[in-house]
Amino acid sequence: MAFLYSLVSGINKADKSLIYIAAIMMCSYTFSDLLPILNNIYLDWILYDLLTITILIAAIFTSYVLTSTASNYIILGLFVNACLTIAIYYDLYVLNNIDEWWLWSVYSIGVNVIDLLMIAVLFINKDFLGLIELKRFIFNRSVLQQNQIDH
After folding, report:
1. Count of CA atoms in the C-beta half-sphere (13 A) of 106
2. d(CA 1, CA 6)
3. Cβ proximity of 75 and 57 under 8 Å
4. Per residue in 13-39, pLDDT tens?
């Protein structure tokens, strides 16, 4: 749905970045459902999230996709999803935990909320959580501190 919206709304725009990002996300989610690679669904999801991040970063470096709010949110969302999935995989299959605890709720709610946020950012392409401003604040602050140390 987000891909079709991006396609229709961006058809006459010079910057097709949102269309490419939405297409990459659509392919990733479609392939992860239809083409299992490993013997465990959680490992498949981790692999597809990391592969999607790699493809998005490659698209940014090759200038097919411009760095934007959407690309930042999508990469961060996929990274957090992968981390949550690694944690739940480790809990279920390495530790063999069968007792429900707070991590399971964090995983269930977190992955779904992050997926919704990634879809929303494809529609609006705005920094509605202030993450880009936070990133600028952190990096500008570290640059200022580094300049003070150098002088």
Report:
1. 12
2. 9
3. yes
4. 777 778 888 889 999 888 888 888 888
